[in-house]
Amino acid sequence: MRDVIRWKHAALLALAILAAGCSSNSKKELPPAELVNFKEEVVLQKQWSRSVGNGQGDIYNMLVPAIDGNTLYAADSKGIVMALDRMNGDVKWKKDLELPVSGAVGVGYGLVMIGTLKGEVIALDASSGEEKWRARVSSEVLAPPANNGDVVVVQTQDDRLIGLDASTGNQRWLYDSTPAVLTLRGTSAPIVTNRLAIAGLSTGKVVALDISNGVPVWEQRIAIPQGRSELERVVDIDGGLLLSGDKIYVASYQGRVAALDLQSGRQLWQRDASSYAGVAQGFGSVYISLSSGTVEGIDERSTTSLWSNDSLARRQLSAPEVFSSYVAVGDLEGYLHLLSQVDGRFVGRERIDSDGLRARPLVVGDMIYVFGNSGKLEALTIK
């Protein structure tokens, strides 16, 4: 696989390895599974399409767009940020930051927040694109910052969490954590509430901080490093956390998928899993894209597998998203697949971007938004 892994020791040297769905001593990497034929039950219809610069760029970025109200915000790796009408794709504003963007896009409370490879956080006015402030942090920002209207929370690649004043960008607090020796390139995006800032770390832990001062409120381990080599002991939480009601859903690489109580961090249930993409939740079930390329549906009450579809093996899947009665997931060849929530069978497929689909799809109402690696952004509905 083509994940980029970082060596976190002193200068944090970059390292490229084969690490998704194959072992470190494999002699020959198996190719992505061929797509299977099926009877199409659902047809996706394009509503609009736009190009957002060069998209994810040449390194393993995960630039997921964001939606606030009727506006969709997207950014490319070279610093182009766009605000689009999510219904018709009309451009409301466009700004070129002329900086290498690596963490995008966070939006909320009138701000659009972008993180860069140079360790900066830039806040733009959501209505005009005017720069409000920029702040320097300890290292590159690989995930979108989060904002509760008072504090902007940023997670850096060295496992630090930083609280910035939402009005000025001034630092309010810093939470320092010792990162794992070896880790997948990327970090999960922090989640904020009025009280807490929650983040997944490279050590396989989830931590919740008091958002006013950065003091830890609770900590929960999701995965325990195992194995002889550092590669075998990688347990990153990279796929992002999902907050639904009073539960947090989280998955780690070479670890587990779990549900946690938001206020206490108590583990409600867990199940062995390996994912660098993340989870989705809906209709009493949790859906996960495993690092092997299998998509799995899990019953929340019994934690048993409802179904498992392994036909997308080694196709480097995006995080799943619930869309109507289906589960949507993208792959390395740019196909968006729709699976039935009931039994996991394929019901629809559409090719969006031949460069691949890495970013999680976004769903609002009856429309799904897909951002391809080359910068192609499409909005689709079920025909």
SSE diagram, text form:
Elements: E1 4-7, E2 14-16, E3 44-51, E4 66-68, E5 71-75, E6 80-85, E7 91-96, E8 101-108, E9 111-116, E10 120-125, E11 131-136, E12 146-147, E13 151-155, E14 161-165, E15 171-175, E16 182-184, E17 191-192, E18 196-200, E19 205-210, E20 216-221, E21 242-244, E22 247-251, E23 255-261, E24 267-273, E25 278-282, E26 285-289, E27 295-299, E28 305-309, E29 321-323, E30 326-330, E31 335-340, E32 346-351, E33 362-364, E34 367-371, E35 376-382
Antiparallel strand pairs: 1-2, 1-16, 3-35, 4-5, 5-6, 6-7, 8-9, 9-10, 10-11, 12-13, 13-14, 14-15, 17-18, 18-19, 19-20, 21-22, 22-23, 23-24, 25-26, 26-27, 27-28, 29-30, 30-31, 31-32, 33-34, 34-35
Task: Give an account of the 3D structure.
With 383 residues, the chain is mostly beta strands. 0% of the residues lie in helices and 46% in strands. The chain has strands at residues 4-7, 14-16, 44-51, 66-68, 71-75, 80-85, 91-96, 101-108, 111-116, 120-125, 131-136, 146-147, 151-155, 161-165, 171-175, 182-184, 191-192, 196-200, 205-210, 216-221, 242-244, 247-251, 255-261, 267-273, 278-282, 285-289, 295-299, 305-309, 321-323, 326-330, 335-340, 346-351, 362-364, 367-371, 376-382. The strands form nine sheets. Strands 3-35-34-33 form a four-stranded antiparallel beta sheet, with no helix packed on it. Strands 4-5-6-7 form a four-stranded antiparallel beta sheet, with no helix packed on it. The chain has no helices and 35 strands. The radius of gyration is 19 Å and the shape is globular. The chain has a domain at 61-176: Lipocalin, CATH 2.40.128.630.
